[in-house]
Amino acid sequence: MPPADAASLSPDERQASIASSDPVIPSMSLPPNDDLAAAIRTIPDYPKPGILFRDITTLLGDARAFGRAIDALAEPFAAAGIDKVAGIEARGFIIGGAVAHRLAAGFVPIRKRGKLPHSTVRVAYSLEYGIDEMEMHVDAVRAGERVVLVDDLIATGGTAQGAVTLLRDMGAEIAAAAFVIDLPDLGGADKLRGLGVDVHTLVAFAGH
After folding, report:
1. Catalytic center residues
2. Domain covering 10-204: architecture
3. Rounded to a whole number, what is the distance in angstroms from the first to the last CA of the chain?
4. Cα 35 from Cα 173, distance rounded (Å)
5. Residue 161 gets which letter from DSSP?
6. Residue 18 above 50 pLDDT?
7. b/e per residue 127-136 (b: at least 16 CB within 10 A)
8. Which of 40, 77, 157, 206 could form a disulfide with 191 if both were Cys (CB 3.0 to 4.6 A apart)?
């Protein structure tokens, strides 16, 4: 695993550290993406009738599947000089923190308004039935830092679009956005691509 003082290393040194470390679970023993999909529980009619809720807690509770998901999300950026991983509240904290550790990068929590103790920057974003706000600390990223945005799922893309705006307003370079689950029928990933963001996803489910 990366040394304890990895945060003090240059991006090139951090990536060399990653390349020389063995993952906790060898890649050859990990299940394919089809098995990742099977590890995600589907709950019908939650949180309202007609919705199929994709519950990743079953994936998180499966050590092999969780390790496979984190390795697969991090692998495309292993040599990309990533400075920070930004995770969207709340499940993006779990996934994003693990990806940041795998890349020897810092982690930035993007939270709902009023949840962070220090001075913040804020942006409004669209929800299905209205507008909400998200924020991050003013010193969370520096101009020019390369950031991967991470969440568990992308659906309509409103939250992710807000996070992209927030990070770019702070001068960050968004290297990509990465999600465990894509709901392509809702078009969120394509909206991010329309903003010039490279999008990586592991599994896709049809419908809502």
Report:
1. 91, 128
2. 3-Layer(aba) Sandwich (3.40)
3. 38
4. 33
5. H
6. no
7. eeeeeeebbb
8. 157
